[in-house]
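Researcher: Batch entry, complex prediction.
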Amino acid sequence: MVAAFTLPVPRLATMPPPEPALPDIALVQRIREGDDRALGIVYDRYVPVVLGVARSITREESDAEEVTESVFLHLWTHADDFDSARGGLRTYLALLARSRALDRVRALRRRQDAVERSAAAEPEEYAAPVSNPGSDPEHEIVRREVRDSLEELMNGLSDPQREAIELAYFGGLTQSEIAQRTETPLGTVKTRIRDGMSKLREAAGKEGLQR
Amino acid sequence: MTPDTWTEMAGAFALGTLDPDDRRAFEERLHVDPELQVLVAEYREALGVVSDALPPAAPPHGLRSRILDRARSLRSPNASTIADRPEETEASLRSDRPIDPNARGTSTGWRFATAAAVLLSLGLGAWAMQLRERSAGLEQQVVTLTGELGQIRGELGQAEVDLARYDSIASALVGTDLRFATLQAPETDPRMHLVFNPEQDVVLIAAVNLAPAPPGRIYQLWGIREGEDPVSLGTFDSGADNVALQALAVPADQEFDLSAVSEEPTGGSPQPTTTPFLAGAWSPQGS
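Model: Structure tokens for the complex:
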């Protein structure tokens, strides 16, 4: 008779609970101390939004990558510019990406021949460079993606409010430039932006409660 | 402007759409108005929601390493010299002290300052620990490198000795009146070839299949003139490869008919104390 025996069942080790992610403020402090690992972690955490913002404004992959690079290098060399009392790191990087992307687009625009934008130009034609016909399909793809992605967020805004904010956010236009572009009185543009931003602020406040 | 005006301008300022004159005026106001600062921060967070709503983009391969390489070449102005580490994970940054996940900045200044101070001390403590570990690692590397350096010095010294030896061997072969001898055992190996350079008073020995002398013993070469006592031409030994290659300085103005090798105590003997096991005749002078 073959003796039966039972293999001992190995005890599974208890999985330790996942460690909490390092807060952004700690990572920024490490960056101030020159720890490039912290920069790498910040990059991993926020490059999708930074690159996404850059891309939505420049609509050129290469320009978006350069903007992204400049954003993270700015954080590396000017970490003291970040003040958590003024907002989160994610927002800071996103706004920095927006600013750098707009700068880049403006610089490209200045180098182009003066293009007269007809009053009939579609509102979605922000400040995207037009002298690169080869990338027009790419621009169109990005424009559509951006419009679709903002659909729900901007749902609470009126069309004029949405138009004014989008021209400002993606085009970097001042209120006067928006008034000129849309052939709308300056006071009206100011009101649209004020009201539109108030609605976005409300939406952001609700979003914060849901997190 | 009235406070309501500043409040109304806050959203446009955060959006960056104020005309230049209005923006400058608002910035001046912002510096001295904490409530306005809070409002602007809230509008910026709202723009963050816009950013979040945008389609996220997957970064291209290589962008991360490009940025980090560039960052390493642009050391942060306030940074101390922290060496690169291969592990870029959050786990490698953690200290063994728990980080309070609730210690995050808030819109209230003093709470932020307290939390920041706590996290700052934790960060510095963790950094100090990492420095200590790094220092210990570097010390070990120094010890290892010192040992390797010593070994290299030893090998270099041996190489210098070998070079000098080969120089003497080569120079022994330079001459116009060289004499040759082949010593061998009666019926078995080893075999030894000799070259005598009378101009330099040097005998070059080259032996094969000659096992090293036993401990406390040495091989000794003799020059023998017929009817006279053997004259010591020097001592030598073979290497682990059973090869002996050496130049011996011999007494000047000596002429020999034969040479022989015997095994002697270390340091040699005035006269052979054992029967030579290798022997051979020199070629005549002038041949």
